[in-house]
Amino acid sequence: MTHLCLDDLERAARDVLPGEIWDFLAGGSGTEASLEANRAALERIFLVPRMLRDLTGGTVEAEVLGRPAALPMAVAPVAYQRLFHPDGELAAARAARDAGVPYTICTLSSVPLEEIAAVGGRPWFQLYWLRDEKRSLELVRRAEDAGCEAIVFTVDVPWMGRRLRDMRNGFALPEQVTAANFDAGAAAHRRTRGHSAVADHTAREFAPATWEAVEAVRAHTDLPVVLKGILAVEDASRAVDAGVAGIVVSNHGGRQLDTAVPGIEMLGEIAGVVSGGCEVLLDGGIRSGGDILKALALGASAVLVGRPVMWGLAAGGEDGARQLFDLLAVEFRNALGLAGCDSVSAARRLSTRVPHYGS
């Protein structure tokens, strides 16, 4: 089937995934106010295009964390991708490799990180801080040894937010899907009414990250360290002082603190304060090439895309994920040129407006 936009892929994925797995992917925490706000905030933003520009030789290529990428984007970390397709992370990583964009391997991947990194391309590794610091740093070392290019340290999950869809479903991982990077035991597979087994498992394994943990990770690896889950300007400033290579402005896709501000709302202010001290990326709610352009105009160097990649994976495996990247490339190239920009750097000079309708 031909999909003309990401909404088409979303519908196709919803049609094939079991209800509780769709809820695990699509849901947010609490009332899902932040989940809905991510999209609403992006939709409120309008671009001010420039005219009469020479677009000859225009390019959508970008530099992300100091290395070239075919688009100003990377795949966000998403746990347990074999829930969505039997080939899981391997299929998604191959599609990202062929699309020329970085792929972030999750601590909670359902395929060992070494196998995913062996696919090639530009693998990054996402780290959750575990109760056992030694195990956390072992994961960092494994990622570096496997050829990963960066450590994306998620800092907004001291424990998992209350995701009511999963709790109502009594969600648990099927037997064939496991946390492949460390021995998680049976906790994530134990179905209990009114509980999320995945949340119960992470409550046992995760510990709140601290600035001391950030320093421990930086001291343990030569790879660039990126902090994912920054929303406060003060935290962004401290991240620069801590010497990290980048920050991801994100409310975790609306899955952690319900009513946490959408990342796009804080992006411009944070980019201004950081002022080149580290890279600033945006995660949360990106659903089109036009959304990528908005993020660049507000100061991001690139965006992370998570759920839509899983839609492609669910709808068509590796081919479906490839179609997702193809759609975003076509949409971004179209939006970039229509805005009068011949490059990603030109996009960062665009103006934005939030129109006020009525009185």
Automatic annotation (TrEMBL):
Its cofactor is FMN. The keyword Flavoprotein applies. This is Alpha-hydroxy-acid oxidizing enzyme. FMN binds at residues 77-79, 126, 154, 228, 250, 283-287, 306-307. Pfam families: FMN_dh. It comes from the Bacteria. Residues 1-357 form the FMN hydroxy acid dehydrogenase domain. InterPro entries: Aldolase_TIM, Alpha-hydoxy_acid_DH_FMN, FMN-dep_DH, FMN_HAD, FMN_hydac_DH_AS. Belongs to the FMN-dependent alpha-hydroxy acid dehydrogenase family. It comes from Amycolatopsis coloradensis. Gene3D superfamilies: Aldolase class I. Glyoxylate binds at residues 128, 163, 252, 255. The keyword Flavoprotein applies. Keywords: Flavoprotein, FMN, Oxidoreductase.
